[in-house]
Amino acid sequence: MSVSPKIPAICSHADSFHKQGITGKNITVAIMDSGLSPHPEIAPHRILHFHDFVYGRTTPYDDYSHGTHVTGIIGAKQIGIAPECSLIALKILDHHGNCSIELFIEAIHWLLTHQYEYNIRIVNMSIGSNPSISRTEQILLNLWVSRLWEAGLIVCCSAGNNGPTRNTITAPGNCEDIITVGSCDGTSFSSISRIPSSKPEICAPGVRILSLKPGGGYHIKNGTSMSTPFVSGYCALLLQMRPYLTNAEVKQQLIAASAPLSSYPLSIQGAGSVSLSTLLR
């Protein structure tokens, strides 16, 4: 029996908060991914900036579809968690979904330089490094990601899909400071850290997630790449209500609003699945 697709705004119950005017308005989310294809669910005025670190193009596009899907979960008008948040699309993945360390660092430097210009509060990283990169390279990536956190930005990163064995989260998801998100829908979609109690901190839906497709349609994707924008969207709603919260306080409140799922080991879910109703009460 097939499982019905999950519509982010509905399965998270964010739609009930939209009716109360909690939509992520005036909160900017930056998405480091494969870009963003124009779509009827994303009004052009909501895209504050598009920056192509790969090919240098100036108008929004997505030649891998991943970034458009992720962005839709966060902010699509009808199906997204935070349908009135502002968006920054930073294209760092090429048409194969690959990114060099140099481009990753360049994008982080851009964020640090333009953080206040665009009032960026949240950075979504539905990405992970190749497990084969050196320890030195992993440390370098995480040092740069830590700079975002130290600058006050909320950084949400995917745990990866290499679980459920230990030590399968790679940089930047294994950066201690940030919020690492696992999937609460299946053990095969959550990597875990060397010490299972530390990462991921929380989990969110990650299987059969319906979101935007380049060209104006919709499609389904799986993985912690889909779980992470749920949490970024939750953060946008929370910050609209309580804009004074620091990134550390947001992280604490996400963990406090989570409950373990009895059907999955704690090692892949951290504190458990985030309850948006608990977070925003």
Task: Give a structural overview.
- There is one protein chain.
- This protein is an alpha/beta fold.
- The chain has a single domain, classed as Peptidase S8/S53 domain (Rossmann fold, 3-Layer(aba) Sandwich), CATH 3.40.50.200.
- 30% of the residues lie in helices and 18% in strands.
- It has nine helices and eleven strands.
- The strands form three sheets. Strands 2-3-1-4-5-6-7 form a seven-stranded parallel β-sheet, sandwiched between helices.
- Helix 3 packs parallel to helix 6 (224-241) and helix 4 (101-114) packs parallel to helix 5.
Provide a brief overview of the structure.
The protein is α/β, with parallel strands linked by helices. The protein has one domain (8-279): Rossmann fold.
- Estimate the helix proportion, in percent: 25-40%
Extract low-pLDDT stretches.
187-197
CATH superfamily (homologous) name? Peptidase S8/S53 domain
The span between the termini is 36 Å
**In the CATH hierarchy, what is the class?**
Alpha Beta
Shape: globular
- Individual helix count: 9
Average of pLDDT: 92
Number of strands: 11
Order of helices and strands: HHEEHEHEHEEEEEHHEHEH
Going by helix content, strand content and strand pairing, the class is: alpha/beta
- Percent of residues in beta strands? 15-25%
Radius of gyration: 17 Å
At CATH level 2, the architecture is: 3-Layer(aba) Sandwich
Largest sheet: 7 strands, parallel
Strand order of the largest sheet: 2-3-1-4-5-6-7
Which fold name fills CATH's third level, the topology?
A: Rossmann fold
Summed up, the domain count is 1
